[in-house]
């Protein structure tokens, strides 16, 4: 079984792809793609996961400017875990230990203890399990990141970064904001990341509560009784206790897993009578029931949820990395020649910002089957351009692998061919992106699978003999307009 990606791998991939974006501002995407292709040159026959892992390992070995975000996250996660463990154990142990303080005058009320430390824990554990059982997701109009952590926690984390050095603060803030920007693509990963920390706290709280209870039983003489203002018969309390004890009473001797009816009746406290007439055996008969309740309804479900959160986090990271549109583009660059791109010096800052905005992502389908990029590139060409350039496939074969030309009419609804490979749309940059053209591109992107990237290849004026590179002013207009669409997985390439 292959080793799944970890959250540290996700953060480092985000970091390195951000570095690639910055380098592409000056060198162009073709140069960056070629450098990445060399890193996995020896894995031509490997699968996508092996290539991505090899690329990540090579980039980590080449990193020389300090600790990577993945390592920083590991250190921060360790500190956070210790803080959560201390707070949870202290709260759980201290709360139960102080509640069980027995002066010899009045026994511990079983009903109050059950509600505070068993029933509430069980209900909270059930509520935590609902998102896993029913796969509850946030509305599509809301970011899962915002639903889970909220604006207040985000601001708190950014303020916490101010304690770092200037260099580390800039890097950490940049990574955090990129992670928030990609929260739809990694919504399940972020959910499990926070969910697992909640389960760590709850599990250790339950462990601390159980440890305090056993400490009181072993080293102190503690009595348990029940009382209520309502005219409740002991038979009713015994019946309720028997129902609660169903998960464990079958495996324990009679009268141990749940108090007998006689013990229940003998441990009932009446305010005006005190406890002088109550039997010590009856008052001590409740502790096995309460101990098993703490374990079965408090500790056990939280431990199972903690295991589920750890497994779910690993699977979510692996699936969402492999289905991430930017990872798909990276994987495509490993197996096929990249489109030739050109970045001019003018408008570099504006174009870079537009390019980063343009490469927003969405939540990939959580089907556990990473799609494999096909070798064939489907090239959508407006009908008038296809008629104007008969040898279009020959021209494009110089900059991409196995182009399959598919003429389309941009005056009707997009006619998408049956393909699972790369989709490239040819556009002459000198023709301004009017509203009709942009609406057609939006319809085309809507028809594609949500995780499938779409590349717009900008050219200059096309003739029967050649395809000319576009002018930088025209490219600049296209980048700004398409960036404003904020379509997920949309990528602009320039014929160079």
Question: What this model shows, in words?
Answer:
This protein is α/β, with parallel strands linked by helices. Among the domains are: 69-226 and 286-309, no CATH class; 336-494, 3-Layer(aba) Sandwich (Rossmann fold), CATH 3.40.50. It contains 19 helices and seven strands. The strands form two sheets. It has a five-stranded parallel sheet.
What's the pLDDT, averaged over the residues?
Answer: 77
Structural class: alpha/beta
Run of helices and strands: HHHHEHHHHEHHHHHHHEHHEEHEHE
Number of helices: 19
Number of beta strands: 7
Low confidence ranges:
138-147, 340-374
DSSP strand (E) fraction?
5-15%
What radius of gyration results from the CA coordinates? 31 Å
Described by strand count, sense and barrel closure, the largest sheet is:
5 strands, parallel
Walk across the major sheet and give the strand order: 4-3-5-6-7
The helix content is 55-70%
Shape: elongated
Report the span from N to C terminus: 43 Å
